[in-house]
Amino acid sequence: MHNLTNVLWIGGSPCAGKSTIASMLGKQYGLDVYHVDETLPHHAPHFTPSKQPCLYKWTHIAWNDLWMQSEDQLFKEVIRCYGEHFELAIEDLKAMPKSKGIIAEGNVFMPDKVVNLLTHPNQAIWLIPTRKFLFDTYRSNRSGMVEGIVKTCDDPEQAYLNWMNRDANFSEWVEQRARIAGLEVLKVSGDQSIQKVVQRVAGYFRF
Description:
CATH architecture: 3-Layer(aba) Sandwich
Structural class: alpha/beta
Largest sheet: 5 strands, parallel
Mean pLDDT: 94
Number of domains: 1
Number of helices: 10
Strand content: 5-15%
Helix content: 55-70%
Distance between the termini: 25 Å
Shape: globular
Strand order of the largest sheet: 2-3-1-4-5
Number of strands: 5
CATH superfamily: P-loop containing nucleotide triphosphate hydrolases
Order of helices and strands: EHEHHHHEHEHHHEH
């Protein structure tokens, strides 16, 4: 028994608003919120080449060596990295108090991993940005971070494209895997306000 029946899952891909939506739902309904990205500084010092080979590589590699890899290699590696981080996230969630519900959000909660942990379908949802929304969000909300990283690469323009296309390809892959498993997918295009998206997710969770 995995003992995670009190967890609601928000998976998906970068730039879909998972963190914001989970925080808003947690505050509104009095739930604990687990943000995978916030756990990376805690876990990273304990990565080893034998136990987390892909995460170890990605946390020790130079930006140029990372983002100048081919799109295909980046795509394959990001799935492996998320898979390794998923196992650590599950251990975190098992250790959290069971006195109230938990919303767990992050890219690592991939459909093929989470489906075996569900007791009912309305326990999980995947937020998938359209390709245009993903690219627009990177340009507007995360442009400083991205530019600061890719400018250290031999070919900043190519590094940027590799990064964006990796995340777009991952988005499409997650959507496909969720639909094959019969799991809920919510496309995020920016046409609706964040409040409307929160309402839709809350409705799906049957709050």
